[in-house]
Amino acid sequence: MKISNNKKKTEDKLGEIGISEVAFILGYVIVIPLVGAVVLGRWLDNRFNSEPFLLLLLVLLAIIFSSIFLVVKLRKYFE
Questions:
Q1: What angle do CA 12, 17, 11 make, to 5 degrees?
Q2: DSSP secondary structure string, 45-64?
Q3: Torsion from C-alpha of 12, 17, 21, 22, nearest 10 degrees
Q4: pTM of this prediction?
Q5: CB 26 within 8 Å of CB 36
Q6: Which end of the chain is less packed: N or C, by CB atoms within 10 Å?
């Protein structure tokens, strides 16, 4: 009984905002930090002649922060 009740609450929350809107927002949460990390990382690597270390570091940080943000956001919808 509890499982179906939780499933219904999740469907209601996703129905209010729309699954496409959630996918759109989550896509930008992943894409913007990664693109920013690549651009900034390449620029910093060229400036400090440290290719590819800063690029890889910033991409790794972008993935970590995006993952944390996604977990926090998705917990709201699936509680």
A1: 20
A2: HHHHT-TTHHHHHHHHHHHH
A3: -50
A4: 0.72
A5: no
A6: N
**Cα–Cα distances in Å, from 22 out to 9, 18, 36, 65, 76?**
16, 7, 21, 18, 12
63 Cβ contact list (under 8 Å, min separation 6): 34
* Tokens matching residue 67: 């993952």
**Tokens 């609450």 sit on residue:** 9
Is residue 13 helix, strand or coil? helix
Q: What are phi and psi of 31, to 5 degrees?
A: -70, -50
CA distance 52 to 44: 10
Rounded distance between C-alpha atoms, residue 39 and residue 70, angstroms: 22
Count of beta carbons in the 10 Å neighbourhood of residue 38 = 14
Q: What is the pLDDT of residues 6-16, one digit of tens each?
A: 555 555 666 66
